[in-house]
Amino acid sequence: MARKLLLDKVNVPGIRSYEVYRREGGYRSVEKALKMVPADIVEEVKKSGLRGRGGAGFPTGMKWSFLAKPEGVARYLVCNADESEPGTFKDRYLMEFIPHLLIEGMIASSFALGSNTSYIYIRGEYAWITDILENAIAEAKQNGFLGKNILGSGFDCELYVQRGAGAYICGEETALLESLEGKRGNPRIKPPFPAIKGLWDCPTVVNNVETIAAVVPILNEGGEEYAKIGVGKSTGTKLISACGNINKPGIYEIDMTISVEEFIFSDEYCGGIPNGKRLKACIPGGSSVPILPANLLLTTAKGEKRLMNYESLSDGGFATGSMMGSGGFIVLDEDQCVVRNTMTFARFYHHESCGQCSPCREGTGWMERVLKKIENGKGEMKDIDLLWDIQRKIEGNTICPLGDAAAWPVAAAIRHFRDEFEWHVLNPEKCLTENFGLRHYADPIHVPA
Amino acid sequence: MISFSEIKLKEVEQIIARYPHGKQKSALLPVLHLAQDQFGGWLDTPVMDYVASLLAIEPIEVYEVASFYSMYNLKPVGKYIFEVCQTGPCMLNGSDQIIDYIKQKLNIGAGETTADGMFTLKTVECLGACGYAPMMQLGKTYRELLTKEKVDSIVEECRNKAAINN
Fold it and tell me: Which long-range CB contacts under 8 A does B20-26 form with residues at least 24 apart?
């Protein structure tokens, strides 16, 4: 059984309340942090090897150390709770069931960064979680962990929750800041990075919910202890939200040493695929990351067992690998259609494009239309090449990574399942009532079930 | 004359107080949520103009935000809005069938409202409930692991609630 650092107490009855959370050892990290020098806290986070849990995997300690500290200018910590990447629902779980963990992490991190006013920007649809967080903040304040002169340390901190209003793009940190300033969520051109010019042009750090929560065990146990868990540059634990065609969808805290095979098939995690179906494909890190067929998912091109961590999931690059991304793990069984699944993602990105950059604004809609055409049995062979051409012209040609995020799933689907696209074109009638199934595999009987 | 109640105006003040002096425009998204709740579930132009005046910003600054975010309704909606997710993970678990069933049951298409003004059906993109698919948002909460039977009981529940409120 893997060690849990974030969700170990999530099943304690009443853990949502301050009283129970505190009794279970909550807020120790704030007590400890306030006695430290802020720069030493940043050092601990650096030592921990913690990487941003929102999807990019950038080292958190390094991001913190970039924060500019000009004299007399306010600095801000903003928590990115705009969880919107299809397949991802881990931050919601953490905030809903153990909200004080995030509040505790926000207070300790605010102290480390010198932020006297911090914000949690939460996606608008998580309306009931906003209430849960605001309640937790009020409790923390009543107990002296927020407000003026926290625990007599001289440090003042206020924490507010800001609700978005339905826009995937606001998960991109500069779009999030624009939204927090009361504007459309149009990403900014970088540089300057938020660490120099962020919220209201002040130095700002934006971190994901899970990242901020991980600061709590890092402070409690020390960065070096945290770094002992996991493997290589995948330190600590990671929340995986598992969904699609599995027996036990939900949130799992893993220690990044287990194999993908164990994660899908063992009863401790996903519990295998329902109804004895076989594993057709998987998108292991949220809708943006490349889809992999079963063989490449379970084993790298070098023939090694693929593990649930940053390095192993990306082993082989985009040719034969994928990415850890946000930890949104989507499993497709043999009855699923890769073309249709890709079409829903293209529709998603078309809907969510902010419209600033032409390649993304026009390209996402174009991909959706072409994919719909193929899915509906009206495609031609040249449409598959056209799709490839469009995605290639979006990638790398936009202000923010949404363009890449929209291009990658289409590229990977064609790269690995071109035969399924061609089958749709060659069987315009049949593809409306039948699925391609496992015909992609030379030996379907040996595809794991 | 459009105006928030005293209590809501207090709430607006509290929201503005979360930001530094002069940055009251940051209150725009939260205040638009309040306005939509208070003024019939959608944002008519006079409502947006009122919000602009409250925050001392230009009406165009409100319009451009209201039209950007999918949760703001720019035309009238039914009393109950079924916002059904149709993205990948929900699709893999049968959201297409649930959407078809709702269309048939309420006799409306996506984006339409029933003649009695009771229900609106909206197809939406990923709401972060992928492990509990298929799902829909109804008001402030999520309804998850939907089946046809569950849809029936939700429709029933809404009708009963509306009857009591009348």
Answer: B20/A74, B20/A117, B20/A200, B23/A181, B23/A200, B24/B55, B24/B56, B24/B57, B25/A181, B25/A182, B25/A183, B25/B55, B25/B57, B25/B61, B26/A162, B26/A180, B26/A181, B26/A182
Residue A445 predicted with pLDDT over 80: no
Name A387's Cβ contacts closer than 8 Å, sequence gap at least 6.
A367, A370, A371, A410, A414
Q: Specify the pLDDT at position A80.
A: 98
Those residues whose C-beta lies under 8 Å from the C-beta of residue A341, and which sit 6 or more positions away, are A291, A332, A413, B88, B91, B92
Interface of B with A in 120-149 (CB under 8 A): 124-133, 137, 140-141
Q: What is the mean pLDDT of residues B12-35?
A: 98
CB contact under 8 A, A168 and B87: no
What pLDDT, on the 0 to 100 scale, is given for residue A130?
98
A182 vs B65, B128, B131: nearest CB: B65
Distance from CA of B105 to the nearest CA of A (A): 24
* B88 in contact with chain A, both atoms CB, cutoff 8 A: yes
Task: Please give the average per-residue pLDDT across B122-134, as a whole number.
Answer: 97
pLDDT tens-place string over residues B63-115: 999 999 999 999 999 999 999 999 999 999 999 999 999 999 999 999 999 99
pLDDT at A448: 85
User: Minimal Cα distance from A90: which residue of B?
Assistant: B128
Cβ pairs bridging A and B (under 8 Å): 146
A330:B65 CB<8 A: no
Closest CA to A370 of A351, A353, A352, A391: A391
**pLDDT score recorded for residue B150:** 98
Q: What domains are defined for chain B?
A: 6-66 (1.10.10), 80-165 (3.40.30.10)
Split at pLDDT 50, 70, 90, the class of A343 is very high
Neighbour-count burial for B23-51, b at 16+ CB within 10 Å, e otherwise: ebbbbbbbbbbbbbeebebebbeebbebb
Domains of chain A: residue spans and CATH: 18-228 (3.40.50.11540), 234-333 (3.10.20.600), 338-439 (1.20.1440.230)
Q: What is the pLDDT of residue A444?
A: 80
Say whether B88 and A124 touch across the interface (CB within 8 A): no
Mean pLDDT of chain A: 97
User: What does the alpha-carbon distance between residue A114 and residue A134 come to, in Å, rounded to a whole number?
Assistant: 22
Q: Which residues contact A376 (CB under 8 A, 6 or more apart)?
A: A432
Whether the Cβ atoms of residue A21 and residue A139 lie closer than 8 Å to each other: no
**Contact across the interface for A250 and B89, Cβ inside 8 Å:** no
**Helical spans, DSSP H, in A98-232:** 99-113, 127-142, 173-180, 209-221, 223-228
pLDDT at A392: 98
**In the structure, what pLDDT confidence band is assigned to residue A1 with cuts at 50, 70 and 90?**
low
Residue of B70, B96, B99, B125 for testing the chain A interface, max A β-carbons within 10 Å: B125
Rounded to two decimals, the pTM is 0.97
